[in-house]
Amino acid sequence: MGRTSKGLIAVFVVASAALVAAQNPGGSPEGKKLKNAVASTPESVKAGQALYQKNCRFCHNTDAKGNGPMAPEGTHPSDLTDAKWERGSTDGEIFMVIRDGAGPKFEMKGYKSKVTEADIWNVVNYLRSLQGK
Asked: Confidence band (pLDDT; 50, 70, 90) for 104?
């Protein structure tokens, strides 16, 4: 097997692993098992709001309705204030979308290399505080 073939196989394996890790529509058994590691306190919600405004508002908008000004063309970021969560509605599934990205096309990249897990849980708590508003 030549150097090029080995390189292509390595890329395929890495890409396949990323697809498995992403949170696809329908949620995931792994996400359903994850329990929120950060209590939903006013401090957590405030920290999550700050992180949301720094990282998420560009695509999901400041009000989290999904119509942000910098969403990639042809994408439809989720409305994070409604009761419909197509990639799963548990805290763990929401956590996984933020951490690993939104598959299968990865229009939303994961944030695991940019923020801590505690920060992701803070964002989950903030998003929960928006529901029903």
From this structure: confident
